[in-house]
Amino acid sequence: MVTVAAEVRKQISGQYSGSPQLLKNLNIVGNISHHTTVPLTEAVDPVDLEDYLITHPLAVDSGPLRDLIEFPPDDIEVVYSPRDCRTLVSAVPEESEMDPHVRDCIRSYTEDWAIVIRKYHKLGTGFNPNTLDKQKERQKGLPKQVFESDEAPDGNNYQDDQDDLKRRSVSIDDTPRGSWACSIFDLKNSLPDALLPNLLDRTPNEEIDHQNDDQRKSNRHKELFALHPSPDEEEPIERLSVPDVPKEHFGQRLLVKCLSLKFEIEIEPIFASLALYDVKEKKKISENFYFDLNSEQMKGLLRPHVPPAAITTLARSAIFSITYPSQDVFLVIKLEKVLQQGDIGECAEPYMIFKEADATKNKEKLEKLKSQADQFCQRLGKYRMPFAWTAIHLMNIVSSAGSLERDSTEVEISTGERKGSWSERRNSSIVGRRSLERTTSGDDACNLTTFRPATLTVTNFFKQEGDRLSDEDLYKFLADMRRPSSVLRRLRPITAQLKIDISPAPENPHYCLTPELLQVKLYPDSRVRPTREILEFPARDVYVPNTTYR
Description:
Mean pLDDT: 77
Protein name: Dedicator of cytokinesis 7
Pfam families: DOCK_C-D_N (PF11878)
CATH topology of the domain at 252-401 and 446-534: Immunoglobulin-like
GO molecular function, one term: guanyl-nucleotide exchange factor activity
Organism: Cercocebus atys
Radius of gyration: 42 Å
Distance between the termini: 54 Å
């Protein structure tokens, strides 16, 4: 029926296309096919092209161009490659209690990769093997083509030709141009054209084709079509780039180790967290990394409320990923304490007025503060309140550490009299401090993979203001840290000492946990304090396929 319908359309279109006698010859339709009669107003099902090609193979004679017509049967090869899992245990849940469609979606994270290999893709229009070096190599030894239109007229030769033309035209000055006499004169003085040999001989067409074929092959370049310049990359005919095997996306990775946190007085546990912020985009670009640097005595105050800590919560080092590093990225450190009665300023007042050197003189007051802190820990040990914060301009540290000659750097960051000032100390013969440049330029300054490891000492924190807890207020403060401003001068500092190490993350760190707390491979001992991978929230979109289950 399909073949008959196709024949009906072909014959009808051939006989009546554009004919004014269409209405008069409708009765001819019945004579087209003796199988069935198809009215012109009835819609005919289209031909299934694939099925038609299978049932009606092309009758192509064997010849040198047959490969250009037929599709090569060995062009496509499908190879299955096992998928690598970077964790010891897969993050995909068990399939026992799932709906069938959910199970199929989950399997997309565990099934092997199906790689399609195209054997002849280099012969297609999407593949361009002509590089600039190959073009120059092919052009060696080629004769230079010079055409009359490309030649600039020589001044002396051109003047000689004009003088010769004048001499030849002297005898016919009285003859009108374009007349019969002038034509005869020009014809006698013109040079004859070269005769074409064997022009009038009777030669078979096959012999002429054979001669032409031999002449084409003589002195013919072996890669004639490759001499054609490559097409413009902005307007390609076709793009057939071979994609890489999908893998989990990571930006430039930064390893941060938290070493110690000390205050002038120690009366209660203090909890700290790290996160990355982008001031220009006004976005938080990483999740929080919480770490605990309290002494065992301070941890004992919370024992009734806090269950025994799992090994995954004891991490003091973290790996941050930054896809778009820039001069606007800050590492923000926030401190919290156990919730207690009163305003934030009242709770932070003892840390600003008491000094470690005056501990003996203020012993009674400190004992009273410890007793109050113990009571709050017993009653409200599960709850936290904001306490203080500070920020580190990440690229300043990276650029300054990368410019030093030593293998390691110790940098002290102070927010005292000069808010946000930066200074460095080196364990060498150089004594003193020198301020670091605030601004850097170029892509090298934002490279987080080649700078030297640095040890930072943060000496002061900003007291958290009760009415400025939002992220918008934080972005304003971070913008003020990049330039001298009176806004930060009004914030009262809290003296403390936080030491952290910043270095490029190794390619395959040991004892590492994913953001889902899964152990990454090369995890020899489960009792060792782990390193946490911190999930990134990219400032701009990252166009990569989702290959991991989260």
